[in-house]
Design a protein that fits this description.
- With 430 residues, this protein is of the alpha+beta class.
- Among the domains are: 31-154; 208-257; 299-423, no CATH class.
- 44% of the residues lie in helices and 18% in strands.
- It has helices at 22-30, 39-56, 72-90, 92-110, 116-154, 171-204, 265-297, 341-350, 417-423, and strands at 158-159, 206-215, 219-224, 229-233, 245-251, 254-257, 300-309, 315-318, 330-336, 371-376, 386-390, 396-406.
- The strands form 2 sheets. It has a 6-stranded antiparallel beta barrel with strand order 7-8-9-12-11-10. A 5-stranded antiparallel beta sheet has the order 4-3-2-5-6, with helices on one face.
C-alpha cells in the first residue's frame, strides 16, 4: 500500500490551519477516563446488586391491613434500574440524573422494612449506583478535557460548517421517542383510571366473610357464612390457607378479595415498554441535534489531520506526522455533504469506488490511501464532526459524521505507534 497521502487541493482551505501532531494527539488520548470508568464495570456492579436485592427482598403477604395494590413506586424503581443498565453504557448524561434518583427511592422505600440480608443488598445497590454515577461523571469530564485540548491546539483557527439543507440531525429518534413517551403516559393515565374505578366499585360493594375451601393457580373457592359457594380471582392464592377466613367484596356481578385491589401491572408494563426506549431515543435525538447545531451554527476548531477509509467503510483519523497511518486516533462513519442534487450526482459518480451503494454487496471499497483533511469540531465519545477532505480524483469534498465517534481502547494511542508498526497493521478500535 502506498503511504503517500492524497493532498487537499490548493486553495480549498487556508494554509494557516494548525496541524494535529502526534504529541498533541497523545495528550488528547491521555485525557480519556481510566479503565475503571469503562461502562462494563458499572453495569456489571448494578446488575449483580439488583439481582441480589430482588432475591433477598421479603415477600409481603396480602391482607386487609396491607392490601396488595398497584405499586407505582416499584414501577419507577424497576424502570430506572433497567434503564440505567443501558444509560450507563450509552447515555452517561441520563445516568448522571437517574442514578441519584434511584438511590433516594431505594433508601426511602426499602430500608425501613428490610431484614439484614435485604438491607445489605440494598446498601450494595446504592454503592453500585454511586460507582455508576462516578463513572458517568468521569466520562463526561473526559469529554470536556478533550474538547479543551483540541481548542487549545487549534488556537484561533475556527471555521463555520455550511449546511447544504436544513439541519435534521436527531429528528427520527426525537419523533420516535415522543411517540413512545406518549404511549407510556397514556398507559399510566389508563392504569390510574382503572385503579380509581376499582376503588369506586369497592366503596359501593357489599363486604362478605367467607371460608377458604380450595385453591387453584389463579383463584380461591370459598364458602360464605350463608352457605353460598363461590369462586373469586386471586393473584396470590398461596397466601391463603385452607380454612382461613377472607373478606370478599361483591356488587352486581363484580367480585374480588378485599385484600387484593385492582393491580395495574399490565398498564405499568406497557408504560415501561414505551417509556424506557422512548426516553432513551428522545435523549439521544436531543443530544445529536444539540451537537449538530453547535457544529453547524457556530465557529468550530479546525485542525489538519490524515484520514483513511477502511474496507468496512469506517473513516480512521491519524495525526499529520503519522505518515504511515499506523496509529488511528479514532474512527467514525462519514458521509459526503452535497450542496445540491446536481453536485450530489456528480460527486457520487466520482467517489463510487469509495462509498459503496447501500443496497449492493458486490461493490468493494478499494480506496484505502491516506487523505489530507481538515477536521472541523472537537472529537470525543459521541461527538459530531465534519471534515474538508478529497475525493478519489483529488477534488475537495466536505463530509460529516453519522453515528458515534469510536475511540480506541485504553491501551491504544500514539504512544503505542512503535508496537503497532512492528505488528504490521493498525490497531483495532473498540
Amino acid at each position: 500500500m502506498s503511504k503517500t497521502s492524497i493532498p487537499i487541493p490548493s486553495g480549498s482551505v487556508s494554509e494557516d490551519v494548525p496541524a494535529w501532531l502526534s504529541a498533541d494527539a497523545a495528550a488528547w488520548t491521555g485525557a480519556r477516563p481510566g479503565p475503571w470508568a469503562r461502562p462494563f464495570w458499572s453495569v456489571l456492579a448494578l446488575l449483580a446488586t439488583v439481582v441480589a436485592a430482588i432475591a433477598t427482598e421479603p415477600v409481603p403477604v396480602c391482607s386487609e391491613a396491607a392490601p396488595c395494590g398497584p405499586d407505582w413506586i416499584g414501577m419507577v424503581q424497576m424502570g430506572l434500574a433497567i434503564g440505567l443498565l443501558y444509560w450507563q453504557a450509552r447515555l452517561p448524561e441520563l445516568a448522571l440524573v437517574a442514578a441519584p434518583v434511584l438511590a433516594v427511592i431505594v433508601a426511602w422505600e426499602e430500608f425501613p422494612s428490610a431484614g439484614w440480608a435485604s438491607l445489605a443488598a440494598n446498601v450494595a445497590v446504592i454503592a453500585a449506583l454511586g460507582f455508576g454515577w462516578a463513572t458517568a461523571w468521569a466520562r463526561l469530564a473526559a469529554r470536556q478535557r478533550q474538547r479543551r485540548l483540541v481548542e487549545r491546539t487549534a488556537r484561533s483557527e475556527h471555521r463555520r460548517v455550511e449546511l447544504a439543507k436544513p439541519l435534521t440531525r436527531g429528528a427520527i429518534p426525537i419523533s420516535a421517542g415522543l411517540a413512545l413517551c406518549a404511549v407510556a403516559v397514556g398507559a399510566i393515565v389508563l392504569g390510574l383510571h382503572a385503579v380509581h374505578a376499582d376503588e369506586g366499585q369497592a366503596t359501593r360493594a357489599t363486604r362478605t366473610e367467607a371460608e377458604v375451601t380450595g385453591r387453584t393457580d389463579m383463584s380461591l373457592r370459598v364458602r360464605t357464612l350463608d352457605g353460598r359457594r363461590i369462586t373469586v380471582d386471586a393473584f396470590f392464592p398461596e397466601d391463603y390457607s385452607l380454612g382461613t377466613t377472607v373478606a370478599v367484596l361483591e356488587d352486581e356481578g363484580w367480585r374480588r378479595l378485599a385484600a387484593e385491589p385492582y393491580d395495574a401491572f399490565g398498564w405499568q408494563l406497557l408504560a415501561l415498554a414505551g417509556g424506557l426506549p422512548g426516553l432513551s431515543l428522545l435523549t439521544t435525538g436531543l443530544l445529536a441535534r444539540r451537537r449538530g447545531a453547535a457544529l453547524h451554527h457556530g465557529p468550530v476548531p479546525a485542525l489538519r489531520v490524515l484520514e483513511r477509509l477502511d474496507h468496512e467503510g469506517m473513516t480512521r483519523v491519524y495525526a499529520v506526522d503519522d505518515a504511515a497511518g499506523s496509529t488511528p486516533l479514532f474512527a467514525c462513519t462519514c458521509i459526503p455533504v452535497f450542496p445540491d442534487g446536481d453536485e450530489r450526482e456528480e460527486l457520487g459518480a466520482e467517489t463510487a469506488d469509495v462509498h459503496a451503494a447501500d443496497d449492493t454487496d458486490d461493490v468493494p471499497i478499494t480506496e484505502t490511501r491516506l487523505h489530507e483533511a481538515v477536521m472541523l469540531g472537537a472529537p470525543y465519545e459521541g461527538a459530531e464532526l465534519a471534515s474538508i477532505t478529497t475525493g478519489t480524483d483529488g477534488t475537495p469534498m466536505v463530509t460529516r459524521t453519522i453515528g458515534s465517534v469510536r475511540l480506541p481502547g485504553p491501551a491504544k494511542g500514539p504512544a503505542e505507534e512503535a508496537s503497532a508498526d512492528s505488528a504490521g497493521s493498525a490497531p483495532s478500535l473498540a
